[in-house]
# Entry
Amino acid sequence: MAPPSYSDLGKQARDVFNRGYHFGLWKLDVKTKTNSGVEFSTSGHSNQDTGKVFGSLETKYKVKEYGLNFSEKWNTDNTLTSEVSVENQLVKGLKVSFDGMFVPHTGYVRRERGGRRLSCGFSFKYRHKLATSGNNEPVITLSYRSKTGRFKTAYTHDRVRVDADFNVDLSGPLVNASGVASYQGWLAGYQVAFDSQKSKITANNFAVGYSAGDFVLHTNVNDGREFGGLIYQRCNDRLETAVQLSWASGSNATKFGLGAKYDLDKDACVRAKVNNQSQIGLGYQQKLRDGVTLTLSTLVDGKNFNAGGHKLGIALELEA
# Structure
């Protein structure tokens, strides 16, 4: 079995702490798939503290015979992201993709003397003044605002997983690379980020772990200053537990947490977690019917129990 990517090391334990909790949010997720194979995902949430509403719409389409995947996502911040990828075509186990982010309302702008303005969108940065008046006022200005693009590659083998990506930046791309190797349940990974513009390594991370199906151990060192560990244990068919520990050498800040998930039956489960700051998270998830799932969660501040400020979260998932 191929090892996971570096970012997925310890994922089982992180899911116990993160999935099923939506503190301070009213959330709605809707997923559907057409007969032609196009997948639509719509998500929206409202922050109970600020009242801000955020939403997104994502479409995915796969051409399996050619290993092609297309996806496009738009959100209410008016940001558009697109990705195209090809998998297992050039070399078995190799995936190559390109994704770009574009903000339409800050794209191409044309200004003419007299106040007229025409605008549309492009994804590269370029600025050129065609002419100026006597008082140095631009007659026509064309500008391409900065957008982002990124090439990504991933190669998977039975014992090795290698990932690399770099952004499209003519002044010097930021290169990220990582690799994970496995042997008889043991996992070892390394992650590095290099800023070619500054000729500087910006991230230097190591990880070592062990996976035995129902038991996962993960340890990591980030930049030689942050140390962390995760333990995941599936005690039986219904109960999952996890332990999380981290320590930063610069501030001596220590974080510790315990989490658990228990399946009441095939349609319902409860979750609980607590950390060393006396923050207690509780969650309940119920499948109301096929394609309809309701999740309730709350965060209780144990140090200031009588002062209030506790948070409640409600999420509804619809799938058809």
Notes: The radius of gyration is 24 Å. The CA atoms of residues 300 and 306 lie 10 Å apart.
